[in-house]
Every structure is written in C-alpha cells, then in structure tokens.
Design brief:
The protein has helices spanning about 20-30, 40-50, 55-70, 80-90, 95-105, 140-145, 175-180, 205-225, 255-274; strands at about 5-10, 35-40, 120-125, 130-135, 155-160, 160-165, 185-190, 230-235. The protein is of the alpha/beta class and about 270 residues long. The longest helix is centred in the C-terminal third of the chain and has 22 residues, at about 205-225.
C-alpha cells in the first residue's frame, strides 16, 4: 500500500496562527499532503492549503494572519456592541458576517471538488446532535459552520440544518484521517494538549477544565488506537499557559510570536523524526 500523507488541523481560535508556523516547517522539509482535514480555525487554514498545497501558500497564510492581527474584524466589536448584540439575539456576541465576507472574497463559489487536494471539515449539527463532515459542494458555508464558536458567533445554517463549531464534537480529527486512508499523519494542534491539566481551584476554572477534558479525551483515545502501519506526528506549538486564558480569542498581539515559536519547535521536531 502506498503512503498517504494527511495534515490534521485542530481548532483553537486565534491560537490557530501556530498552524502557519507548522505548515512552513512541513513544506521546508518537503512534506506535502494528500489529504487535509480540519476543525474550526483549522478548517480555515486547511482550506487555504487545499487550494495550493505548495510552499507558496505559506506567504498567503502569513498575509491572512497579519491582516487578522491588524484588524481583528471578526472579534473586534466594542464591548457595547457585544452586549447589545447579546441582548438582542440571546445567543452570541459577534456577527459572522465579517468572516463570511472575507471567505466569500477569497474563495467565492469554490467547491470541494475543485480543490487541489482532498479536504474535509467538520461541524456539530444542532438538529441531529451529530458530528457532520463536509466534503462536497461550496466550501465557504462549510467552513463558516465549522468555525461557529458557541456564544461568540451565531449558529450557521447550511441547507435545512444549523451548525456549531466542529470543536464541540471533534477538536483534533485524527480518527477521520485514519478513516480516509491516511498512513502518515501530521497533527497541527494549537498547543493546549501539550500542557497537563490541573484540578480547578476557582469557579471560573471549572468550566475551562471540563471543556478541556471533553475536548482532549477523544484525541488521546485515537492516538492510543492508531492502527498498525499508521504513524502520527504531533507537532509542538510552543505556547504557554497564558494561551489558556478565556480572553485569548480576542488577543491579536501575539500572533506573529506564536507563528515563529511553532515554526522553530516544528523544525526541531521534524529534524529529529524525519
């Protein structure tokens, strides 16, 4: 059986910038994907790579993340506008329109079938309470659905169903890559799995730790259950405990530093393991 290389890109909001550094290291080591699967911000990064799975895509991603750092137009509302929207809608703080408009400008009516490499992304169906994988049709609605962070962005409607962020059901979709026949897998995760959890000591820590357990347990199990003949490389993100703050989703000040740290860590990892 021939080798089939997959990039698995996990979710994590603005922490997803680290995946750019990892991708830069991978392409410098001439690692190219045959398959890309992504969740949330990993779906966005993965889509960009799926349109151009060559080293040149790194500059395109860097430009995208630099513009995010400069404007933060997705999560850049004033506190008053956030409160007003939350009261009016009862469901979310931010509008999804800036994200949708940016994706429309970049990808238009592009479909999964037109991509240069196979790409899939997941979201959580509300009506069916189910993990849903998008693999055909227009890419923009699928990625918007995959990135619909609960409480921050509204549920995304695709067809007759409503969806929330794919991280709810599959934050680091390693198992999906295995299902699709990958034999060599590179996991691009945002760094939280690098840091052991500690028992919560304050009320607001309970929710964070509970979510992290729910987010991580599936990935840990799937790593332990990799089939014979399948290898998985979990690239280091180079983050710190500061990245676990509940407000990190708005902090664009460290985007460039995160990219560089992940690049340095991933180069060192690849030098040792490839």
């Amino acid at each position: 059986m021939s080798e089939r290389t997959a990039f698995v890109l996990g979710g994590g909001g603005l922490l997803g910038a680290v995946e750019v550094g990892m991708l830069r290291a991978l392409f410098e080591y001439d690692v190219r994907p045959d398959l890309i699967v992504g969740t949330s911000v990993g779906a966005l990064n993965g889509l960009v790579v799926a349109t151009d799975p060559t080293p040149g895509v790194v500059d395109r991603l860097l430009d995208l993340w630099e513009s995010v750092s400069a404007s933060n137009d997705v999560y850049g509302d004033t506190p008053w506008r956030q409160v007003t929207r939350a009261v009016r809608t009862g469901t979310h703080l931010h509008s999804a329109e800036p994200l949708r408009e940016r994706l429309d400008d970049e990808f238009g009516d592009l479909t999964f079938e037109q991509l240069a490499v196979q790409f899939q992304c997941c979201a959580a169906s509300i009506e069916r309470s189910a993990e849903t994988w998008f693999s055909e049709g227009p890419v923009v609605p699928a990625v918007v659905a995959s990135a619909a962070v609960p409480g921050l962005l509204p549920p995304a409607k695709v067809g007759k169903e409503h969806y929330l962020d794919g991280g709810i059901v599959n934050s680091i979709p390693l198992g999906r890559a295995v299902e699709l026949g990958a034999t060599r897998i590179f996991v691009l995760q945002v760094g939280r799995v690098d840091r052991p959890l500690k028992a919560p000591r304050k009320p607001w820590e309970v929710a964070r730790v509970s979510f992290e357990i729910a987010r991580r347990h599936r990935f840990v199990r799937e790593m332990a259950e990799l089939p014979e003949g399948v290898t998985a490389h979990v690239l280091p993100a180079g983050g710190t405990a500061k990245d676990d703050s509940p407000w990190v989703y708005r902090d664009t000040s460290r985007v460039e530093g995160r990219i560089e740290a992940a690049y340095d860590g991933s180069r060192a990892y690849l030098a040792e393991h490839l």
